[in-house]
Prior knowledge:
By secondary structure, the protein is mainly beta. It has three helices and 20 strands. The strands form four sheets. It has a seven-stranded mixed β-sheet with strand order 11-10-9-13-18-15-16, with no helix packed on it. The relative contact order is 0.13. Residues 1-12 have low confidence and may be disordered.
Amino acid sequence: MLAYTLFVLFAGGLQALAARVQVTWDVGYLNISRDGLSKWRAIGANGQLPIPPIYISQGDVLELTAINNLDKPLSLHAHGLFQRNSTFYDGVGMATECGIPPGAQFTYIIETRDQCGTFWVHAHYGTEGIDGLRTALIIHDQDPQLLDEYDEDVLLTLEDWGHEPYDDHIKMLQTIAEVDMPPNHPTVLINGINANFSHPIRFSPGRRYRLRVVSMSFTYWFKVRLPGHTMQVIEADGISSHPSAVDGLDLCPGQRYSVIITAKESLEFNYALNVTFYNDFIVDIPGLTTLYHHVPIVYHNNAPVKTYPVIEDHE
């Protein structure tokens, strides 16, 4: 009886704290170079790429309004949300909706009372998502016991970014023989910028970090490691789990994990979060098919980086 009472009080507290969060995306074309290599007509929201992440709390209602300034239909999909009794808001073009016509707008009503964790929102009509219209969606858990397990929340988004609109890329693949196909693998973006220039993540001794890793990729896989540290998985694809120790994460397109990493007590060394970018379905091009990137983990500005051998286990 006591457990039931506590559950009712907790659920009632969530309902009392719930808010209606309104987000508007004015969706249009942007001539932009996100990786510093190729400039082309991408798709963004409110004149921005990357699109800022959306942060809400469990129990909130997200009202996401999409204004379509493209020359083709548009739909938005909240990846990983169940949409119980609301599949008409699921945003899968020509499956759960016809798409928002050019010049029109539509508001997606997304309930979160049954889910929390790490998700993402992306266009789900044609190639609009891979052309830029995607961002992380974080639904904060209100369970005080979980919140007590970490001190800081850190987001790490991973993207594959092409060198031309994806429709043009598909046309190239359909017209060029495989033996003549030029090396045209995408660039890796980490937190929205070229992975070769990743911004550092700062660690303080002894603090516990919840690292949310979101693969916003459409075609490639990622492997993520932090040598010298243990990752405790506490969430996979929006489902909470008991902590499970792993030495790395393997993410296919759309997957998400949350891990807790406890920082070392010493300021003696800095470290590198390793991100391996790979695939198993395209002919190997030495130096291009598997790409290795590093996100600096900084304990002290003047400390050396502790190095570890590269582990080749992505085959």
